[in-house]
Amino acid sequence: MSKLLIYKGNGGKVYDLVMAQKMKREKEEKEQIQDELIKEARSIANRYNDTWDIRPTAIVRGEKTGLYNEIRAIMGRI
Description:
Layout: H1 2-9, H2 14-49, H3 57-61, H4 66-75
């Protein structure tokens, strides 16, 4: 309460202070919801990341062998 009296005594407008606090609180809540959604999406993506890795081992290793060249030709990326 004393901070509010000092703020008003220094020429501050209480309405502007309250509105600024409200906007800050709404922004923080929005950021918190976004962070939770991002964390949830990342956890789902990480859970299935290894199960959907179907790249051939020859491509993943990147060694320039005959098998590598043939698979790349079939895939159309030479």
